[in-house]
Design brief:
By secondary structure, the protein is an alpha/beta fold. Helix 6 runs antiparallel to helix 7.
């Protein structure tokens, strides 16, 4: 049986945020065909205590605490003339864990999840390297620079430039560079000239996100408009602030009891301050499905969105009417089963229509997800890419 080293920037369990969801399902898929050796970082205390679950899927695993803060990462990156994203995930103990794993096991493939972790692939490694970029991280910083204050804009443009250079170097060495959508893959090719670029789309666990399972709901009176996501992530923060300030006051004119629920862990202070009679800020919840089940409309008003948005797939799987920005809808084959808007007036008009009568939109979205986005089908191309089909049949 083959041995694969899986390098991850976060522990791929539990699958409760976008980056961990994809890593979780990729790791489980690989573990069906090979011995997987995981080296991952943890940045929350709970992620140091998943040994039993990781042992179910991994032949070995090591979890390293990521201790470097943002300020230290920025200072280190400036001194070393490297991207902050790389400095933030640099850790000597992680490098030692990688070396120990390579020395102890006959690793023939290194699967790198997220670009920051490519710094740990040894220069002398002669086996197969698969780089799962997911999306074009450097381009995100170019987006951040637009409209930012001058000092921040300079830093974001620096990050874009240096990280894009790093990504191109990684892709030149990798046997394959993976992205979650053709739009992201095309953008990466245009920015780097990379040739060995493939698309492995995100999927959804339709058995877990199943409206037929029945949920008590969130128990809120009046139409409930729901946003889900990690609430210390800048694009999510900007999206909910914009929606709460620019859209909700207009919605309340025609729906006085409507409320906007911001559902997700680690809300930053500027999100917490949005809480009011019309805006709920839940913080971390035990199960996001209850909130989705209670939603009259699920919104994803992101201005910056790279790749396929799990929050949109989850709402579609729960058969909810989804209203998303063009950026959040990009890359998802929604086949007309979700509504797209980008202006306050567009959101208000769509919300009015969806609250009045969503028709078959929710059930149609569910059917589309079932047809198109089950994880086994989405990850199937990995078998041929890694030569797992032949090994599994042997």
């Amino acid at each position: 049986m083959r041995d694969i080293l899986f390098l991850a920037h976060r522990v791929p369990f539990p699958p409760d945020r976008g980056d961990k969801i994809r890593a979780h399902h990729v790791l489980k898929h690989l573990a069906k065909h090979a011995r997987v050796h995981l080296v991952a970082m943890a940045d929350v205390e709970a992620d140091l205590h998943h040994d039993a679950v990781l042992a179910e899927h991994c032949a070995s695993h090591a979890v390293i605490w990521r201790s470097m803060g943002r300020a230290q990462a920025a200072a280190t990156a400036l001194l070393r003339r490297q991207p902050i994203s790389i400095a933030a995930f640099a850790h000597p103990e992680y490098a030692r864990a990688v070396q120990r794993t390579l020395a102890a096991h006959p690793i023939d493939t290194i699967f790198v999840y997220s670009g920051q972790m490519a710094q740990y692939v040894p220069a002398a490694f002669a086996g197969r390297i698969v780089m799962d970029f997911c999306d074009v991280d450097s381009a995100k910083f170019a987006d951040y620079a637009e409209g930012a204050s001058l000092p921040m804009a300079i830093m974001m443009r620096r990050e874009d430039r240096l990280l894009a250079r790093f990504e191109a170097q990684v892709a030149a060495r990798a046997d394959a560079s993976l992205f979650v959508s053709e739009a992201e893959a095309a953008l990466f090719r245009s920015r780097t000239g990379a040739a060995r670029v493939q698309v492995i789309e995100n999927g959804i666990d339709t058995g877990f996100f199943d409206p037929a399972a029945g949920f008590a709901g969130a128990g809120e009176a009046g139409p409930l408009i729901v946003f889900t996501g990690q609430m210390d992530y800048r694009p999510n923060v900007d999206a909910v602030i914009w929606f709460a300030r620019e859209v909700m006051p207009l919605v309340r004119r025609s729906h006085p009891t409507a409320r906007f629920a911001i559902v997700g862990r680690a809300p930053v202070p500027e999100v917490s301050r949005l809480a009011s009679e019309s805006v709920l800020v839940t913080g971390e919840v035990a199960d996001v499905r209850g909130w989705l089940a209670a939603a009259a409309v699920v919104v994803a008003p992101l201005k910056i969105a790279r790749g396929i948005q799990n929050k949109v797939l989850e709402a579609m799987a729960m058969a909810r009417p989804v209203l998303a920005s063009a950026a959040a809808a990009e890359g998802i084959d929604h086949a007309g089963t979700i509504t797209v808007a980008d202006t306050p007036a567009g959101y208000v008009s769509a919300i009015d229509a969806l609250i009045a009568g969503p028709g078959d939109l929710g059930p149609a979205a569910r059917r589309q997800v079932e047809r198109r986005y089950g994880w086994p089908a989405r990850l199937g191309p990995l078998d041929a890419l890694l030569g797992l089909e032949t090994r599994a049949a042997a």
